[in-house]
Amino acid sequence: MVSYIIKLFKYIPFILARRYEITLMLLLYIIGIRVYILLIRIFSLFNPKAKLFIKGRKNGYTQIVQRINPQEKHVWFHFASLGEFEQGRPVLEKLKTLYPAKKIVVTFFSPSGYEIRKNYALADVFYLPVDTKKNAAWFIESINPEMAIFTKYEFWHFNLRRSKTGAFLYM
Predict the structure, then answer these.
(1) CA neighbours within 13 Å on the CB side: how many for 11?
(2) How many angstroms separate the CA atoms of 133 and 142, rounded?
(3) Which of 10, 23, 81, 78 shows the shortest CA–CA distance to 52?
(4) 11-28, pLDDT tens digit by residue?
(5) How do the domains of the chain map onto residue ranges?
(6) Please, how many CA atoms are within 13 Å of residue 155, restricted to the half-sphere of its CB?
(7) In Å, what is the CA distance from 69 to each residue of 13, 123, 166?
(8) What phi, psi does 169 have (nearest 5°)?
(9) What is the pLDDT of residue 127?
(10) CA–CA dist 101, 97 (Å, integer)
(11) Which numeric CATH code is attached to 59-170?
């Protein structure tokens, strides 16, 4: 009986993956995102940077709805943090120089980039919503990107997948 239960638990991830038509890696990614957010919420009780991470995303939906017109096309730059922003900044500024009418959206994952660049004059700046299928669908529909530019190693599965349906992706 015990060996039967052990075998059953061994195959549960594969059964779930088949049922929901996702791969094991994607299942682990989804679980990892959920665990990460749970840990950030716990750490936010005593860590100021984690608290900013949670607080900054709390009103993200409202900020985007108030400042972005989903009927207009946007160029979306995503930066993990301030260092990646500084690497991609010349590209953003050159794009704005060549196409001054283009609307630019900048997202950050970490508070260090967002807090320093939230009032950046060349773009609307937001925290990147947590990468879930629902958030990505809403976010991409809201900003309506014609181009999405990601720097370094910050690749978010659902946002990338959703972006490729209607925007040019640059990494």
Answers:
(1) 8
(2) 14
(3) 81
(4) 555 555 555 556 778 888
(5) 2-43, 59-170
(6) 10
(7) 41, 13, 17
(8) -105, 135
(9) 93
(10) 9
(11) 3.40.50.11720
